[in-house]
Amino acid sequence: MEVEIRTDLPPKIRRQRKQAAISEPHQAELSRNGATPEPVKEQKEKESSAGGSVPLVEVEVLRIPPNPRLVICRYWVLGEERRCTVWVGRNAKFVPRMKFWLPEPSDPVARIRPWPIAPNRLPKRRGRW
Q1: Could you give the number of structural domains in the chain?
Q2: Coil, helix or strand for 109?
């Protein structure tokens, strides 16, 4: 005995695969070999790293606060000592008197807030940069 199942639902809608994530094709440039376009995101990263207009300052760790994501540092500008807090992912590998380079925020309000450090720039070993 065979039973036929009938439903009122429409057939399953199949979507096409998503194409490249370039929203504005006129901004994409051809790669060096001229075959495939480079994504816009990579171009922006190249421009920001090539700019070099952000001044780097050497900061020295003064102390490790109770907050496990912050480090209190100091740096010098024109012979004057300034202090800042730096937001690191985990401060377990930072020790006092450790020195490293950070881009100084250009906005005076941003200097008051904790400075961000890139997550891929954390030290591999405790106290070693």
Answers
A1: 1
A2: helix
Domain span including residue 109: 56-121
Q: In terms of Cα–Cα distance, which of 115, 108, 51 is closest to 87?
A: 115
**What distance in Å separates the CA atoms of residue 27 and residue 114, rounded to the nearest whole number?**
34
Q: Where are the alpha helices (DSSP H) in the chain?
A: 40-51, 108-112
- What distance in Å separates the CA atoms of residue 86 and residue 84, rounded to the nearest whole number? 6
For residue 77, being part of any structural domain is answered with yes
pLDDT, tens digit, 9 for 90 and up, residues 3-43: 777 777 777 777 776 665 555 555 555 555 555 555 545 44
Three-state secondary structure call for residue 107: coil
Question: pTM surpassing 0.85?
Answer: no
